[in-house]
Amino acid sequence: xxxxxxxxxxxxxxxxxxxxxxxxxxxxxxxxxxxxxxxxxxxxxxxxxxxxxxxxxxxxxxxxxxxxxxxxxxxxxxxxxxxxxxxxxxxxxxxxxxxxxxxxxxxxxxxxxxxxxxxxxxxxxxxxxxxxxxxxxxxxxxxxxxxxxxxxxxxxxxxxxxxxxxxxxxxxxxxxxxxxxxxxxxxxxxxxxxxxxxxxxxxxxxxxxxxxxxxxxxxxxxxxxxxxxxxxxxxxxxxxxxxxxxxxxxxxxxxxxxxxxxxxxxxxxxxxxxxxxxxxxxxxxxxxxxxxxxxxxxxxxxxxxxxxxxxxxxxxxxxxxxxxxxxxxxxxxxxxxxxxxxxxxxxxxxxxxxxxxxxxxxxxxxxxxxxxxxxxxxxxxxxxxxxxxxxxx
Length: 393
What we know:
By secondary structure, the protein is mainly beta. The protein is built from two helices and 26 strands. It has helices at about 1-20, 35-40, and strands spanning about 45-50, 55, 60-75, 75-80, 85-90, 95-105, 110-120, 125, 130-135, 140-145, 160, 170-175, 180, 190-195, 200-205, 210-215, 220-225, 230-235, 280-285, 290, 300-310, 315-325, 330-340, 345-355, 360-365, 380-390.
């Protein structure tokens, strides 16, 4: 009985083996590695700035980027000379198919910088996009002031070319003494005021051919010529709205010819009153600021330079310093009250600031914050810088 059972079992095993040896194997099935493997790499491009652009030490560089991916860009990173300086992540857990953002970097030394941007879909990275920029030390650039609208230099002391912020705002810098007019035409007497050379003005509108720019100076709005010999543009001016202007030119009435014309009257030309121009050319502070080991706070000194770039002596003015930290109430310091400042002279002030946490802080200095001093312009009375506070290990 046992022999029969064993024999039957052997026959069964032989039949199974034969079936396996004689049959065809199942075809290989495609492996599904997931969307992250089947999709290609993300792509990224730098919209601004451009290779060859120049900046100054402690001036914030804003890098505008655009990235795309079939599934979703989860983050974009900015590197400066190989070091990671900024990461911007998507608010969506799966990322964004089309991602646009701005990453900032503040150089603390001069030299040539390679700015590299890489987009990521989780751990999969895009080919890098790079530009080369140059960072230099802040310089006081002095030109001769133009006292007329023809562009020829006039006599007198020099004025400093203002530092143009890298914030994308469309501005014009006057290269000569330039008239602001009520309408974009020179065919009539419509001059509102005349700006000195090296005056920085915000643009609010333009003609369709960019031949005239509508600018603001304080509460005054008017038109200046867009001739490249007269003005220089900065910022993103393509988004400035186009304004249609209809020039209502009245037909002049014929002027009767007097039989006895009166003798010409020599009217004295009024002399312009010299005015000051208060600026903040420099904010100096250690970066990073280090909280000592086992300590909970640190106090550091900020050095501020105030300069009068105008041709008139200023009256008394205040200087304030504001410390801004994301998510916290600003701390304001009354730095000093300056009695007066002569033309083309500086005053150096210091202020101690206490930090009680490791974080990134924005430092803002305002000179004459209440506009007590009448100046040639109120657009350059503020300066900003950013510092990092770290905790010593």
